Amino acid sequence: MFAWGVNCRNIRQHNMKVSVNLARGLFNALKTAPPALARSHFTYYPTTATSDKGDLQKMNMFQAINQAMDIALDEDPSALLFGEDVGFGGVFRCSMNLRDKYGKQRVFNTPLCEQGIAGFAIGVANAGATAIAEIQFADYIFPAFDQIVNEAAKYRYRSGGMYDCGSLTIRAPCGAVGHGALYHSQSPEAYFAHTPGLKVVIPRGPIKAKGLLLACIKDPNPCIVFEPKTLYRAAVEQVPTGVYTSELGKADILREGNDVTLIGWGTQVHVLLEVADLAKKELNVDCEVIDLVSILPWDRDTVCNSASKTGRVVVAHEAPYTQGFGSELAAYIQEKCFLRLEAPVKRVTGWDTPFPHVFEPFYLPDKHRCLAAVKDIVNY
Amino acid sequence: MLFLRNPTKIITRAARLRQHRLTTALVEGKRNYGQAMFPGARAAPFVNQLKLTMPQDYAPIPIYRVLNREGEIADPTQDPRLGQEVVEKMFRDMVLLNTMDKILYESQRQGRISFYMTNFGEEASHIGSAAALELRDIIYGQYREAGVLVWRGFKIDQFIDQCYGNDEDVGRGKQMPVHYGSKELNFVTISSPLTTQMPQAVGTAYALKCRPKNDACVVCYFGEGAASEGDAHAAFNFASTLDCPVILFCRNNGFAISTPSHEQYNGDGIAARGPAYGIATIRCDGTDVFAVYNAMKVAREFVLRENKPIVLEAMAYRVGHHSTSDDSTAYRPADEIEVWNSVEHPISKLKRYMVHKGWFNEAKENEYVKDVRKQVLKQIAVSEKKLKPNWREMFEGVYAEMPTHLQDQMNELEQHVEAHKDNYPLKNFKH
């Protein structure tokens, strides 16, 4: 399996310095990509921390995730953190310094084998310990699909509640990153949304990432956190340094409006916030923007209340159109809000193709396509 | 892999030390022209002649056995010296499993339960291995390990209630028959997907190792067919690199449904893979309860002392059909089965041993078999009359709590069933 971090994998521990530098080089290359590739399809809209959860500190998303895992390891002596290359800090730096702080028995590399990572994690959780497993890219979660879908999700159910792997959390970087092509860009949430027994969440930034990760680690069900990798460095907010959790299964209304409901998650939320600004400015249309946050179980009340209020809904996600999670939302909204709808629910998504390399700007449901959808739906 | 010629010799530690010295020399800029210093292999020597390393360069790993066919102990030093009471429990548990299997197999044939899998021919590997463990050791199984549960004290009614999925089934009627589990007996609930339990067992072993003063290991049973799955590779490799106190117990019974083992792999069985992953390995006669017992005893001590895994391959023969959905005479001769069902049968071997010891009492055993038969038949009658759990339990246990969308779906079904009562088998379910 090819990933950006693979090159440094053959180098043994005594050459750690070399491997760290190599990885840094590779990932700095991501950051300092040539202008053509660096063109970002979104503008980041920071969240303002409102609650009193300790001092605020400026952090990007990987730092907030790092802090969440630090808290989890500190609070729970049974907690283990593992995956490919997590020992030296992770190819996205999410586990920086944690091995030094908690020891290599608790923060460690596994062999390069996703089904092994997931199965091992289920076993750790089944013993009652807390497992925080990393899949290096969501694109590489499919070898673990059997363990996640047939095993983790069904553990409690099939044993009549005797056994469970509720203390399991899987983290995986997902989503478009500008030049990730087929296997460093995928958004596989819909595959898992079809699996009773799992919880699936996607943060839109540092505050949410920390809160959701801590909530998933504490939740008595197996959880998957898909972290939009393009936000690891780009998303910077004032993050509370204390312990707090974000409720699972709860959507956030980021902007209130009366004309059109825009629903997205992850990076797409920022696209939709910009679309709401543009719609106001160019069309004088008042958009309500919802970050769905939780894919499974998802917040039907917040979505239906908003859809009933506005009568018009645009759902946008990076993943392909057919059987994307937007289909579930559209079907549910038309079933429950039929008499309130003024127009069919519109889905703006990635195309039904693999995620391409050089065509990425044409593939993504960017602000122009979303704004066009808003225009269409108000003129319906 | 050179040491495979002498399978009893395990030199990982020495080799690692040598590797360490080599890498130290490398880092310090010293030169060692005789040996390779590649980080990816042990300190292997260079050679100047090209030679294929052939599988037949390695002798097959021998099969450890204590009892011969006649039920005699060939080497007295290997006598586990188990008292009469223990040996009698071993024998009776094997007989109980065998008797229960025969009746439940028949009751599936009569359509009383939906499915069944027998354990014929493999009773010794269950009982011998279970007897060498402590109850606190955690078991992960495949599905043909009911004998382990028998040894641990799972009762006839618990087996049969599970097969019927009635209200007494601890699994709450959610899985197919023979998918047993018991929290109090530390037997993790069986699931159908093959081999998924293997990396899980390794993870559990790792978690146990992290506990202060850990004195429990994990045992993971799997068939030789399951060992072809990717999860087996994952488990072997994770167990080795992460130093987990787990016994990877392979029941090599020659067949995976219709597929004979020579179509399953071309190497020296499963045991030979152990050393390739850097794992200590034992192969034993799975029809010899004492060989399995001794092997397991040594394995348990080893994994707990070293915090390392062991691969244990118990050779046997699947005497019964794969399952009630299979007729095995379609792919193997009946007279071959007969050999394994008589002279090479684990129960016959232990019986012969007990006869030599003067511990076998024909009348007493006949009485025991009769008694077990009666219990099983009676329990079938009782279990099949018991109501199934309340159908609403279908929605429970998906999550620790019931999310609102599942509550809504349960309510929806409730209203539907209420309106269409006559179309559903409500009388068979608790209310």
From TrEMBL, chain A:
Enzyme class, UniProt record, top EC level: oxidoreductase
Biological process, per Gene Ontology: branched-chain amino acid catabolic process; response to nutrient
Alphabetized UniProt keyword annotations: Mitochondrion, Oxidoreductase, Transit peptide
SUPFAM superfamilies registered for this protein in UniProt: Thiamin diphosphate-binding fold (THDP-binding) (SSF52518), TK C-terminal domain-like (SSF52922)
GO cellular component: mitochondrial matrix
Residues covered by the Transketolase-like pyrimidine-binding domain: 59-234
EC number annotated for this UniProt entry: 1.2.4.4
Predominant cellular place of this UniProt entry's protein: mitochondrion
Protein's cellular compartments: Mitochondrion matrix
Catalyzed reactions: N(6)-[(R)-lipoyl]-L-lysyl-[protein] + 3-methyl-2-oxobutanoate + H(+) = N(6)-[(R)-S(8)-2-methylpropanoyldihydrolipoyl]-L-lysyl-[protein] + CO2
Cofactor: thiamine diphosphate
Molecular function GO labels: branched-chain 2-oxo acid dehydrogenase activity
Function: Together with BCKDHA forms the heterotetrameric E1 subunit of the mitochondrial branched-chain alpha-ketoacid dehydrogenase (BCKD) complex. The BCKD complex catalyzes the multi-step oxidative decarboxylation of alpha-ketoacids derived from the branched-chain amino-acids valine, leucine and isoleucine producing CO2 and acyl-CoA which is subsequently utilized to produce energy. The E1 subunit catalyzes the first step with the decarboxylation of the alpha-ketoacid forming an enzyme-product intermediate.
Assembly mode: Heterotetramer of 2 alpha/BCKDHA and 2 beta chains/BCKDHB that forms the branched-chain alpha-keto acid decarboxylase (E1) component of the BCKD complex. The branched-chain alpha-ketoacid dehydrogenase is a large complex composed of three major building blocks E1, E2 and E3. It is organized around E2, a 24-meric cubic core composed of DBT, to which are associated 6 to 12 copies of E1, and approximately 6 copies of the dehydrogenase E3, a DLD dimer.
Protein name: 2-oxoisovalerate dehydrogenase subunit beta, mitochondrial
Natural source organism: Drosophila lebanonensis
Automatic annotation (TrEMBL), chain B:
Subcellular location: Mitochondrion matrix
Stored InterPro entries: Alpha-ketoacid_DH_E1_comp (IPR050771), DH_E1 (IPR001017), THDP-binding (IPR029061)
GO molecular function terms attached to this record: branched-chain 2-oxo acid dehydrogenase activity; metal ion binding
GO biological process, one term: branched-chain amino acid catabolic process
Broad enzyme group: oxidoreductase
Function: The branched-chain alpha-keto dehydrogenase complex catalyzes the overall conversion of alpha-keto acids to acyl-CoA and CO(2). It contains multiple copies of three enzymatic components: branched-chain alpha-keto acid decarboxylase (E1), lipoamide acyltransferase (E2) and lipoamide dehydrogenase (E3).
This protein's UniProt keywords: Metal-binding, Mitochondrion, Oxidoreductase, Potassium, Thiamine pyrophosphate, Transit peptide
Catalytic activity field: N(6)-[(R)-lipoyl]-L-lysyl-[protein] + 3-methyl-2-oxobutanoate + H(+) = N(6)-[(R)-S(8)-2-methylpropanoyldihydrolipoyl]-L-lysyl-[protein] + CO2
rRNA-binding keyword on record: no
Matches recorded under CDD domains: TPP_E1_PDC_ADC_BCADC
Major location category of this protein: mitochondrion
Enzyme Commission numbers on file: 1.2.4.4
Family the entry assigns: Belongs to the BCKDHA family.
Protein name per UniProt: 2-oxoisovalerate dehydrogenase subunit alpha
GO CC, one annotated term: mitochondrial matrix
Ranges of residues in domain Dehydrogenase E1 component: 93-390
Cofactor: thiamine diphosphate
The organism of origin for this protein: Drosophila lebanonensis
